[in-house]
Amino acid sequence: MDGPEGSAGLPGPAERSHRSSVSSVGARAADVLVYLADDTVVPLAVENLPSLSAHELHRAVREVLQLPDVALEAFALWLVSPLLELQLKPKHQPYKLGRQWPELLLRFTDAPDDDVAMDEPSLQFRRNVFFPKRRELQIQDEQILRLLYEEARGNVLAVRYPCDAEDCQALGALVCRVKLGPYQSGQPAACILREKLDSFLPAHLCKRGHGLFAALWGRGTKAGPGEQGLLDAYRQVKEAGGGDSEHEASLSAHYRTYLLKCHELPFYGCAFFHGEIDKPAQGFLNRGGRRPVVVAICLEGVHVIDSREKHVLLGLGFQELSWDHTSPEEEEPILWLEFDGESEGTPVNKLLKVYSKQAELMSSLIEYCIELSQAAEPAVPQEPAPGNPAPPTVRPRLRRQGSVVCSRIQRLSTIDYVDDGKEIKRVKPKRSTSFFSRQLSVSQGSYSVVQPTDSLEQG
Predict the structure, then answer these.
(1) Which residue, 143, 267, 323, 369, has fewest beta-carbon neighbours within 10 Å?
(2) DSSP 160
(3) Which residues does residue 316 pair with via DSSP β-bridges, in sequence order?
(4) DSSP string computed for 258-286
(5) What is the CA angle 103-365-315, rounded to 5?
(6) Strand pairing of 29-35 and 122-127?
(7) In the prediction, which pLDDT does 430 show?
(8) Can you tell me the mean pLDDT for 187-216?
(9) Is 75 within 8 Å of 126 (Cβ atoms)?
C-alpha cells in the first residue's frame, strides 16, 4: 500500500454491506458490485477485472448513474469491511487489493486470526476525504446531493458523527421532510414516525415509553424528549419557495440544508481510525488503563473521539499541532500529537499518545491534508481602500456548554514538556521550538513547539 488514503473500519456503513463485490471471475469477464451510501447496488460487467484501476471503475459507476463531471472529485472508491476501510487512489487496482486483504488486516488491525480469515471487503462509492466542503455546497446536481446526504445521514444515525440532541433532532426533521413530505397535522406519516423512529434519530435518542408519540395522538402516554423534539423540529422545516405540496419543490434544497447543518460538525467528511489512549491515573493505586478512541482526520484538522461516550476529547486544527508516528520493531505503533496547554497555570507542551496499528496511515493522511490545505490557501486579503469600511468580522458560532464537539482536555493523560534551552524537561514555564519536525508553518497564531533531544522521555 502506498499513499495516505485509508481509515479504520467503524460500525456503520461497513456493517451494512459486508459482502464481496466480485460475484464471478472468469478469464476475461467479471460482474462487479459497487455499493452506494443508501445500500443500493450498481452492477458492472467488466473485462479484465484484475488489471482495472479504481479510476476506470469509478468512471463506469458515473456512467451508469449519469453523474456530471464533478462526481470525479466528490466521490472515491473505497474497499470497506467491518475491520478496515481504505479510500483508493485512482491508480490502485481494487481486485488486487482485495486479494491482499488478509495481509492488509494483519498490517493495520489487531483483529484475531479467525476474524481476518472470515473478513471480505466490498467496493463502495463514497465521499472523497479530500473534497472541500466549500466545493460541496456549489453542487447543483440533485443525484450527487442525494448521495452525499444519504452518506451523512448514515453517519449521524450510526453516531459516527456525534451530535448534540438538538442537532440530531434538527437533522432528523429534515429526514422526515425528505421521506414523508411537508408536515401536516394529523397526517398518516405520524404512524411511520412512531414505528420507525430509529430511522430518523440515533438509537440513544429513541428511548421508548409505552408507545412512541402516543401522547401526541391522544393515547395517554407522554412522548420522550427525543420524540417530542423531533416532532417540533419537523413542524418547523421550511419549504423552499413556499411550496406546500410534497412533490411541488425539488428535494435538492433539503439535501443541501442537511449537508450545511452537517458542515457545522468538525468531523464531517473525515476518514476514521481506531486507536487507544491512556486514561488519567485514578484511585488509591493510581490505576489508569486505556480508553478506546476514534481519530477523525480531514482537510481541516484532527479530532480524537471517545468511542464509548461519543464525544470529542480533543479537537485540533493543523495550525495548532505538531505530530509524528513511531513504529519501532517489537513495540506498539504510536501517533504522537503535540499541542499547547497548561499545567497548573504554567504553559506547557502537551504530548498525546494514540496507540494504533494505523499510526502510519494517520500520519501520512495528516501530512497530505496539510499539503492540500496549503496549496489551496487564498491570497492574503488587501487592505480596504480609504473611505471604504472593512467588511464585518464573522464571529464563530457560540458552542453550547458541554457540547459533544467541544474538547475535554481534562480527560486526557498527556506528557507535559517545556524547553529550558538545554534539554526537554517536564513542566517548565517557557518553550521555543519543536519536538517534532512535522508541523504546519503559519505566520500567525501563538503556537510554538519544542526541540528534539536524546533525553526525551517517552512516558
Answers:
(1) 143
(2) S
(3) 302
(4) HHHHHHTSTTTT-EEEEEEEEPPPBTTTT
(5) 120
(6) parallel
(7) 36
(8) 66
(9) yes
Q: Give, for 147, the enclosing helix (H) or strand (E).
A: helix 142-157
State the Cα–Cα distance between residues 129 and 333, nearest whole angstrom: 24
- One-letter amino acid at 3 equals G
Q: What is the separation, in whole angstroms, between the first and last Cα of the chain?
A: 31
What whole-number distance in Å separates Cα of residue 424 and Cα of residue 405?
A: 32
Residue in the block written with cell 493522511: 365
C-beta neighbour count of 120 within 10 angstroms: 16
Residue 104's contacts (CB-CB under 8 Å, 6 or more residues apart) are 1, 84, 86, 97
CB-count burial class (<10 Å; 0-12, 13-18, 19+) for 33? middle
C-alpha of 175 from chain center: 20
Per the listing, cell 473478513 goes with 119
Got the DSSP string for 435-457?
SSS-B---SSSS-------TT--
In three-state form (DSSP H/G/I as H, E/B as E, the rest C), the secondary structure along 325-359 is EECCCCCCCEEEEEEEEEECCEEEEEEEEEECCCH
| pLDDT top residue among 230 and 81 | 81
Residues 160 and 96: their CA atoms lie apart, in Å, by 29
Is 90 buried (19+), middle (13-18) or exposed (0-12) by CB count in 10 A?
middle
Residue-wise pLDDT for 302-331, tens only, equals 999 999 999 999 999 988 888 999 987 778
- Whether residue 325 contacts residue 297, with contact meaning beta carbons closer than 8 Å, is answered with no
- Which residue in 90, 68, 66, 67 sits closest to 78, CA to CA? 90
Rounded Cα gap, residues 134 and 122, in angstroms: 29
Do 109 and 8 contact (CB within 8 A), yes or no?
A: yes
Q: Helix axis angle, 252-263 relative to 165-180, nearest 10°? A: 170
103: enclosing H helix or E strand: helix 101-108
CA angle 265, 266, 268 (to 5 degrees): 70
Count CB neighbours of 331 within 10 A. 9
Considering only CA atoms, which of 418, 411, 276, 267 is closest in space to residue 334?
276
> Would you tell me how many other CB atoms lie within 10 Å of the CB of residue 37?
23
220 class by beta-carbon count within 10 Å (0-12 exposed, 13-18 middle, 19+ buried) = exposed
Express each pLDDT in 52-67 by its tens digit.
Answer: 999 999 999 999 999 9
What's residue 185's pLDDT?
74
Which grid coordinates belong to 329? 520493531
